[in-house]
Specification:
Layout (H helix, E strand, L loop, with lengths): L14 E9 L1 H5 L3 H19 L5 E6 L7 E7 L2 H13 L6 E10 L9 H7 L2 H4 L2 H23 L3
Antiparallel strand pairs: 1-3, 1-4, 2-3
Length: about 160
C-alpha cells in the first residue's frame, strides 16, 4: 500500500464544500488571551494558505443565525484536497472550539437558466437584425460572452 492518493476530480466542474460551525464559547473562554490570539493567527494563516492554492477558493462567512457562528465555502477541483482542508479548518482554532453544525458538498455546474442564441436575437434592435454584418458581429460577441460565462460558472476563478 502506498501513501500516494489519486486526485478525485470530476469530469466537469469543481467540488464546492459548504461548512458551518458553532463556536464552543465555553471551550474558547478556557483558553488564555495568548492562546486565543495564537488560535486566531493560526486560522488567519490557514485561510491565506488555502487561498494561495492553485484553482482553489475559500470564502469565510459570518453567520446571522442561532445555529452557526461561522461558515466556509471551499471550491477546489480535488475532493481529496477538500477533505484535507476541511479537517484543518475544523481544528484551526484548537480542539473542540469549532463544532460542525451543518455541511454539504455540491459541484459547480452550468446554469440551466442561460439565454439561448434565439432568445438573444429577439433582444437585438431591428437595424442590427436586418444588417448581416452587424448581426454577425452581435452574435459573435454573444457567443464569446456566453462561452466566458459558462466557463466561469463551471470553473470559477
Amino acid at each position: 500500500m502506498t501513501n500516494v492518493t489519486t486526485a478525485l476530480i470530476p469530469e466537469e466542474g469543481w467540488h464546492c464544500l459548504h461548512l458551518f460551525y458553532r463556536v464552543a464559547h465555553g471551550r474558547w473562554q478556557l483558553l488564555s488571551r495568548e492562546q486565543q490570539n495564537a488560535a486566531k493567527s493560526n486560522l488567519l494563516a490557514l485561510v491565506q494558505e488555502i487561498r494561495s492554492l492553485e484553482a482553489t477558493q475559500l470564502l469565510t462567512l459570518g453567520m446571522v443565525t442561532p445555529k452557526a457562528d461561522v461558515g466556509f465555502m471551499l471550491i477546489t477541483p480535488d475532493l481529496q484536497n477538500a477533505s484535507r482542508i476541511e479537517k484543518r479548518l475544523s481544528l484551526s482554532l484548537g480542539p473542540d472550539v469549532l463544532a460542525p453544525v451543518y455541511s454539504y458538498l455540491s459541484l459547480t455546474e452550468e446554469s440551466e437558466y442561460v439565454t439561448t442564441e434565439e432568445e438573444h436575437l429577439q433582444t437585438l434592435p431591428p437595424e442590427v437584425r436586418s444588417d448581416p454584418a452587424k448581426l454577425d458581429q452581435a452574435l459573435t460577441a454573444f457567443r464569446e460572452r456566453m462561452k466566458h460565462y459558462r466557463n466561469e460558472r463551471v470553473y470559477p476563478t
